[in-house]
Write a structure and sequence with these properties.
Length: about 425
């Protein structure tokens, strides 16, 4: 180890507009970071103690580090699509300081050994990685995994994402176990009995393209069932991944009104695009759940605004060219999303739909932190982890997929112009990404 690494690392972020929705902070301030922690927040020029390094944040927003609840890092086993190193590098350039990675890898992340493997430093992660373990063995939907053992080695939730826990008895057992050990179950809500061979949303657009469509009910029926189940077990924690329909939001609202511990996330592509945007057969517009109608999109925006939605999550789903540049119906579901999430949130939610920046930051920080209990993250309190996202809410830029840090470039947003750009990403007090 060099002598430099022995020195207490400190960084003073000066003159930025600090927005921390949880602490209800919004103002021009200095933030002092030392030894991986937030040690002080104060008026500009008034923070004492000095630091080895300074960061000039004038004109920029300084926020708690962004947390993405839904990312596919593809390791173990699918490193041709992404690795933990490349996926977390993409996360860093998208402003994310923590990501929760999904277990639909090869093999499936259904054992304490594999959860431990994902968390090892040799994987080369540059941001915090919190694994979501499988809810059932091999995610086959039949036999529950050992939630307690998975929780003990650092899994933050369980899910069979990529597919649903379809069987009602299995879901009931999962929620009962969730209540016993205070552990969230993340559901990919899709009635796969009625979505077989479907590759987009059912509607005018699928009719025009001649493709089989997934109905709204395929999502809404499972959400409704699971919200009802969650209400039956006091303390059960149900998180609904990538909610895409107005109908499903009704059940989420009902669950929340009835004080069930139900949370949900929405992706940037579902609040930005609709099935009418699928022109031609470009599989970069193919994901699951699919792009929905404009009424559904509008309902998602309202739910993001009114507090029904707890988090924006990218569902970053990298796939190789050969899995995407093929017939739409044969192509893999999923798009990359880590590097376009903030640009879409500011451009679409803030500028077009007037959702305040403070609420958008909440959806990227304290919202997701609460869903999976990331203690000491999602806020800038004294003693919090020194994870911060610094961005310019006015900066206009063009996203170029070819320059992405991800190994895969399957995005519908190549060449899009955004307002709002990440300037720096800080993890444990260190600047791990800085915009060129
Ligand atoms: O579009 C999707 N891609 N939806 C999923 O549920 C899985 C994901 C993937 O793993 O590629
Ligand atoms: Zn999913």
């Amino acid at each position: 180890m060099s002598t430099k690494e022995h020195k207490p690392a400190s960084l003073l972020i000066r003159g930025g507009r600090v927005i921390d929705p949880l602490a209800r902070v919004d103002g021009l301030m200095d933030v002092l970071l030392r030894d991986g922690q937030v040690v002080e927040l104060g008026p500009v020029g008034k923070v004492r103690g000095g630091a080895e390094e300074n960061f000039d944040a004038r004109g920029l927003i300084v926020a708690p580090g962004f947390i993405d609840l839904h990312v596919h890092l593809r390791e173990p086993g699918q490193s041709y699509k992404e690795t933990i190193a490349s996926g977390t590098a993409a996360a860093a350039s998208g402003g994310f300081t923590s990501v929760c990675c999904m277990p639909n890898t090869t093999p499936v992340l259904d054992s304490p050994e594999w959860v431990t493997w994902v968390r090892q430093p040799q994987r080369g992660a540059v941001v915090n990685v919190f694994p979501v373990a499988a809810a059932t063995q091999a995610s086959k939907g039949a036999v529950l995994t050992d939630f307690r053992a998975l929780q003990r080695v650092g899994a933050v939730a369980v899910s069979d994402d990529g597919k649903p826990v379809l069987n009602e008895t299995t879901m009931r057992d999962a929620l009962r176990a969730s209540a016993e050990i205070n552990f969230p179950v993340i559901q990919h809500a899709e009635d796969t009995r009625i979505t077989q061979n479907c590759s987009m949303n059912e509607g005018r657009a699928s009719f025009r393209l001649g493709l089989r469509g997934m109905t709204i009910a395929a999502e809404a029926a499972i959400v409704d069932r699971d919200v009802q189940l969650a209400q039956q077990f006091n303390g059960a924690r149900l998180h609904l991944a990538h909610v895409s329909t107005a109908e499903a939001l009704k059940s989420v609202r009902r669950g929340k009104r009835n004080r069930a511990r139900v949370t949900c996330e929405v992706t940037p592509h579902h609040f930005s695009l609709t099935d009418a945007d699928i022109r031609g057969y470009d599989a970069n517009f193919k994901m699951n759940p699919p792009l929905r109608s404009s009424e559904d999109r509008q309902a998602l925006v309202e739910a993001l605004s009114d507090g029904t939605v707890d988090a924006i999550a990218s569902d970053h789903a990298p796939h190789a060219l050969h899995e995407k540049i093929i017939e739409f119906e044969r192509a893999a579901f999923g798009i990359t999303g880590l590097e376009t999430a903030l640009g879409l949130a500011i451009t679409v939610l803030h500028l077009r739909h007037q959702i305040p920046l403070e609420r958008i930051i909440e959806l990227f920080t304290s919202g997701p932190a609460r869903v999976v209990d990331l203690r000491g993250r999602g806020a800038l309190l004294r003693g919090s982890h020194a994870d911060l996202t610094i961005f310019d809410p006015k900066k206009r830029w063009t996203f170029e997929a070819a320059k992405s840090r991800s190994k895969s470039h399957n995005t519908p947003f190549d060449g899009w112009q955004f307002t709002g750009k990440v300037v720096a990403t800080i993890v444990s007090g260190k600047v791990i990404y800085r915009a060129a």
